[in-house]
Amino acid sequence: MTTLGVSAALVDGDLVPGDVRLDGDRVAEVGLPPADGGRIAVPGLVDLQVNGFAGVDLMAADVDEMRALAAALPHHGVTAFLPTLITASAADTDRALDRLGAAFATDQPGSARCLGVHLEGPYLSPRRLGTHPPEHRRDPDPAELAAWRLRGDVVAVTLAPELPGALDLVKSLAADGVLVSLGHSDATAHEAGLGFDAGARTVTHLFNAMSPLHHREPGLPGAALSREDIVVQLVLDGHHLAPEVVRVVWAAARGRVVLVTDATAAAGRPDGRYELAGVDLDVTDGAVRNNDGTLAGSALTLPAAIANAVDLGIDRVEALRAVTSAPAALIGRDDIGVLRPGSRADVVVLTEDLALEQTYVGGRSVL
Q: Amidohydrolase-related domain spans which residues (predicted)?
């Protein structure tokens, strides 16, 4: 058995006093007499938007590189992740799905668990593409998406609800249990509301690559923030959102915020030149931009996102929920983002000031 030596733990979304003991790959006990030092145990972090990491771009990576990415994530506290494929040619998407299936057919010891695949595109607004290649954008094609779902474990899809045929596709995906997220969209508030009514349950990187919030036309951001049934996903890297906007979002959507990284190959690496699905990226002072100067994903890690949230005045327990239980609940998983007796021993130990100190994957210390 392994006793973590913590003074508190995030259990069922609340920070409770006590130490934690692991037995093999399971959590054995919580609420033991607390240790000194102020360290905190939390469930392994869950990232629902990972395009790349540690020099690996998932769209172009081979099987070994994909596995290397999964092995690198726990060194930044992430024990479960959702690989994200952006807009690309059908052939490139086919190839990436095949490789993801081969790479993660079984869990790799000491590596973050793959939760399926998130297709961010290609059914996006031509007006709100961000860095997605315009030559590969297209309107919804149910047959194409059905073929991709047969090819890979597609558990989430980002699309623009105002496109022809989009609402019917949202309904069919939602009925099949696929998480539909609205994003890269020029939708009015009314069009966004129709997407939510059809079954979309979240929004991809709120405020970025979408219609703006105006006091007479609230667009997609206003529609999402006004609905208590919609989860909003934020990229808190200091570049995607102004501090005031983060505070407004948290005040309006407390309890339904998920922090994601939208990580590229630059995440976990120094500034420099990288690629995202064939798009050249430049990373300067932590900001990831394409050759047009458009933000193109991030170099963010989830521990940094937690720290950024707390620095903005967000309650630390709320920030921790936004990277553990909240993303797990959003994709309908009750086996991740939890820390209780009997749960898998995917656990992160943080210092009193929330700096990452140790990560356990299946009870095995990897950091």
A: 40-366
* CATH code of residue 286: 3.20.20.140
Does 284 share its domain with 344? no
132 known ligand binder: no
**Spatial CA neighbour of 104 closest among 93, 95, 118, 115:** 115
At position 283, the amino acid (one-letter code) is V
Domain extent at residue 254: 45-334
Which residues are annotated as catalytic? Answer: 262
Side chain identity, residue 326: A
Please tell me the distance from the alpha carbon of residue 258 to that of residue 59, in angstroms, as a whole number.
Answer: 24
Mind listing the pLDDT tens digit of every residue in the chain (367 residues)?
999 999 999 999 999 999 999 999 999 999 999 999 999 999 999 999 999 999 999 999 999 999 999 999 999 999 999 999 999 999 999 999 999 999 999 989 999 999 999 999 999 999 999 999 999 999 999 999 999 999 999 999 999 999 999 999 999 999 999 999 999 999 999 999 999 999 999 999 999 999 999 999 999 999 999 999 999 999 999 999 999 999 999 999 999 999 999 999 999 999 999 999 999 999 999 999 999 999 999 999 999 999 999 999 999 999 999 999 999 999 999 999 999 999 999 999 999 999 999 999 999 999 8
Is 214 marked as binding a ligand?
Answer: no
Whole-prediction pTM: 0.97
* Residue 296 annotated as binding site: yes
